Amino acid sequence: MATHRRWPQFRKVAAGKDSQLVEMLKGPASSNPGAPVPGELRDSSLKIVIVDESPIRSAILEDGLREAGFMHVERIADMHNLLARIYAIDPDVILIDLENPSRDVLEQMFIMSRAVKRPVAMFVDQSDSASIQAAVDAGVSAYIVDGLKKERVTSILDLCISRFNAFSHLQGELDRAKGALEERKVIDRAKGVLMKAKNYSEEQAYALLRKTAMNENKKIIEIAQSVVTAAELLK
Q1: Which of 74, 79, 142, 234 is 20–30 Å from 85 (CA)?
Q2: SS (H, E, C) 149-164
Q3: pTM here?
Q4: How many angstroms separate the CA atoms of 81 and 95, rounded?
Q5: Nearest Cα residue to 190 out of 235, 215, 214, 223
């Protein structure tokens, strides 16, 4: 699946409690000033896949999307080789309607959601707390209980994309923080090697790493990793 696609971004993303990654929508939609306004910055060129074995229920989603101007809508009715089919289509958003799914079917959908890393909205008629938690863990952006109505499809789509973007941003920040922590550990190890080998102070060891990085036009982490690797080889 292509990894270079830029996901549609919203100027507004829900904050605080509204940024959690599961949405149980039952009955009339509540007004929420922090949520994306229906239709705001909606990109009608999005490629949307509907996963639904029921032609009647999938028609509700398709009609709602097409009335909102989305023309690139494709339905997958056969769950066989589902992940391969989705990879082949390479959609921007995935809408899954399961009605009353079994545990096995839910698990199959959750596995797919974890793999594709796309905005996923899942519609079910009934659920329980365990299934909701599993949906969150699988990265489902919107988990809709008893909310399959044509007039609500596009607002749910906006919610799904907005929360996917918000989560992706948070995940990116977390990954960068973890990366920075790992780099700091390597640099500290390299300083320790130099302090022991050359009887340097910590400041002198870091200064040598920085000077070497500048002279070789490399990052300090690259020099530090070389020092650590060399020390390992000499043990």
Answers
A1: 142
A2: CHHHHHHHHHHHHHHH
A3: 0.65
A4: 17
A5: 223
